[in-house]
Amino acid sequence: MRMALVLLAAVVMGGLLAAMAAGPVSMSDLHALITYPTSDNDTDEFQAAVATGDVNAVKSLLARKPGLVNSRDNDNWTPLHEAARVGAVNMAQILLANGADINARNNKGCSPLHTAVCAKEFAITKYLVKHGADINAEDYEGITPLAYARRYHNAQTIDLLYSHGAIIDLSEAETL
Q: What is the pLDDT of residues 110-123, one digit of tens each?
């Protein structure tokens, strides 16, 4: 029992130290590190299944190990970040139905919505907004999804975020 606690502490502290080295750590990040330790073989396999759209593998892995839904890789990416990166709305549906944290943050403070906007994946951006993603979330540099949409000149995403209440940062108004 004592050895198991020591091993758990080492895993959590290793993940915590890695996260802290990347920037500020929120309470939800701390909770995720304790609840869902970083990378292992199942996590890597699960992230790959999400990225490639392997629905059967995703469902099978979730049935065997439900905690994978909010697992994190070495960069603190969750499977929902990966689904956002590749525009996999069907994966986002499965992940959210199984309790994925729609506002999880990676090592740079980016949420899955930030990831979808930066990847210029409009369908999943729209899906995440519709399902409660924080549209005014700032990454660790203070950049919101709307600011990224403006940076990448993505008018459709700008309209979507603005119509759902995204706050315009007046210090960046000259980029509009």
A: 999 999 999 999 99
DSSP letters along 14-51, please?
HHHHHHHHHS---HHHHHHHHHS-B--HHHHHHHHHHH
CA–CA dist 44, 168 (Å, integer): 37
Alpha-carbon distance of 131 to 123, in angstroms, equals 12
What are the pLDDT digits (tens) for 49-108?
Answer: 999 999 999 999 999 999 999 999 999 999 999 999 999 999 999 999 999 999 999 999
**3-state DSSP helix/strand/coil percent for the chain, to nearest 5?**
65, 0, 35
Hey, which CATH number is domain 2-175, 1.25.40.20, 1.20.5.110, 3.40.30.10, 1.10.10.10? 1.25.40.20
List C-alpha distances in Å: 167 to 57, 67, 123, 171.
39, 34, 21, 12
